[in-house]
Amino acid sequence: MPNQTKPKPKRNPSSKQGEGKLAHRVAKNSNSNRKTAQKPIGRATPKVAPPKPSAKAETVGSSHMRLNKFLASAGIASRRKADEMIQNGEVEVNGKLVTELGFKVDPINDKVVAAGRIAKIDRRKIYILLNKPKDAISTSSDELDRRTVMDFIGIDDRVYTVGRLDRNTTGALLLTNDGDLAHRLMHPSFGVNKEYLAELDKKMIRADLQKLKSGMRLSDTGEKVSECEAEILGDGTSVWLKIHEGKNRQVHRMFWTLGYDVKKLDRISYAGITPKGLRRGEWRHLLPKEVDRLRKLVERAGETKT
């Protein structure tokens, strides 16, 4: 059942009709927002030489795991960010600072502190789908005290967004404390699909649609983006597209490269999970079958890579 926290009167944006099955799914997304605020968080720890691995870390058959994976699984940070924290001397293991990438810990017996916080793997994994409203930052806190997606999640547990949506992009956003799954879902090598509905400032012509689908180099940086699926809807100013990458503001930049401005952008699906039945700002826990599907999706992608 959808969840809401402290509703307040907000704008009542309209939804956009499309064509066929795509338009039917798009039309299910309606809007309703609320607003609170979060305080920024931040800590730092001085650097010292890393300790040598303990004897138990070399025990045959032990269940030790890499420190960055442990921190991700504990919901502290992504693996990449965890590596930065380790190198910056922000992580202690059993009272000693560790700056060595690849260091392994016992997730049960070792005491790990990251940026002043005790890191523990929460056995109760949480998976949330939020229908993100406009004018919300996809972070847990904001130094400018702007509204964040966490203002809409009515739980005490610490969760993190799976990737980000721009401040004014709406739609499907996953949050979890399962750092390992989040890492796999976000990494482009796993090919997780995201579907969007973009409303443009003018009608898109067929020749440009083919360029969009065929892959291109972004005009601002020269980065290459992969082929995608796309379809022009309605009067020609709405475009549905499916991508598996997640470069910064990628959809906006793809259209800019072709000479179009994106007036509105809504993510209507993430890995096949849609916000159907949720108004803007509402959230729900993922169903067990949805979580299983996400795990199987990245497992299959991992097998394909190898």
Topology:
Elements lengths: L19 H7 L38 E2 H7 L5 H9 L3 E3 L2 E2 L6 E2 L6 E3 L2 E3 L7 E6 L27 E2 L8 E7 L2 H8 L7 E7 L5 H9 L1 E2 L6 E2 L3 E5 L4 E6 L6 H8 L4 E9 L12 E3 L2 H18 L1
Parallel strand pairs: 9-15
Antiparallel strand pairs: 1-4, 2-3, 2-5, 5-6, 7-9, 7-16, 8-9, 10-14, 10-15, 11-12, 13-14
Helix pairs in contact: 2-3, 2-4
Quick description:
The chain has helices at 20-26, 67-73, 79-87, 179-186, 206-214, 250-257, 288-305, and strands at 65-66, 91-93, 96-97, 104-105, 112-114, 117-119, 127-132, 160-161, 170-176, 194-200, 216-217, 224-225, 229-233, 238-243, 262-270, 283-285. It is an alpha+beta fold and 306 residues long.
What does this structure look like?
By secondary structure, the protein is α+β, with helices and mostly antiparallel strands. The chain has two domains: 17-38 and 123-306, Pseudouridine synthase, CATH 3.30.2350.10; 62-115, Structural Genomics Hypothetical 15.5 Kd Protein In mrcA-pckA Intergenic Region, Chain A (Roll), CATH 3.10.290. 22% of the residues lie in helices and 21% in strands. The protein is built from seven helices and 16 strands. It has helices at residues 20-26, 67-73, 79-87, 179-186, 206-214, 250-257, 288-305; strands spanning 65-66, 91-93, 96-97, 104-105, 112-114, 117-119, 127-132, 160-161, 170-176, 194-200, 216-217, 224-225, 229-233, 238-243, 262-270, 283-285. The strands form four sheets. Strands 7, 8, 9, 10, 13, 14, 15 and 16 form an eight-stranded mixed sheet that branches. A four-stranded antiparallel sheet has the order 3-2-5-6, with no helix packed on it. A two-stranded antiparallel sheet has the order 1-4. A hairpin with a 4-residue loop joins strand 13 and strand 14. Helix 2 (67-73) crosses helix 3 and helix 2 crosses helix 4. The two termini are 39 Å apart.
